[in-house]
Amino acid sequence: MNDEIRAPQIRVLDDQNKQVGLMSSYEALVEARKRGIDLVEIAPKAVPPVAKLIELNKYLYLLAKKEKNESHGKTEVKEIKLGLFVAENDAARLASRAKDFLEKNHQVKLSLWLKGRQLELKQEAREFLARFIAQVGIAKTVSEPVMQGKVLRVIITQQK
Q1: Long-range pairs, 42-51, Cβ under 8 A, ≥24
Q2: Full-prediction pTM beyond 0.85?
Q3: Domain boundary among 70, 95, 110
């Protein structure tokens, strides 16, 4: 910021993100002092480095606000793979894992793999998925289960 910028040439932006031009660090600092604001380096690794004419507190506030918005709305889709004849304790463990993912605001994709003769048991597979979702407890389906090749898939989210 201000006198700490060591690059000989910098690209300068105003507070509206409009390009002021390419100038020396000294000229940019004079321009900032003329306007009564700070010169803040925002992209030091760019060629030439980019600096912005803005009050330092306002820049820090906007940076914090941007980081908060980026981290706040992030959801990932986690996948849990199931088999049609999984043991009860394994199903309970996987349901607990799915519940943990949902509590962390992630979506969960349940993939029920059908092998060989199990492909004829599509209705039983749908019933198994319904029981599994009920076992999770806090889940609701985003869409109906869809058969994709040998896999029956459904995405669940946390109930509000």
Answers
A1: 42/13, 44/7, 46/11, 48/7, 48/9, 48/10, 48/11, 48/22, 49/5, 49/7, 49/10, 49/11, 50/10, 50/11, 50/12, 50/13, 51/5, 51/10, 51/11, 51/12, 51/13
A2: no
A3: 70
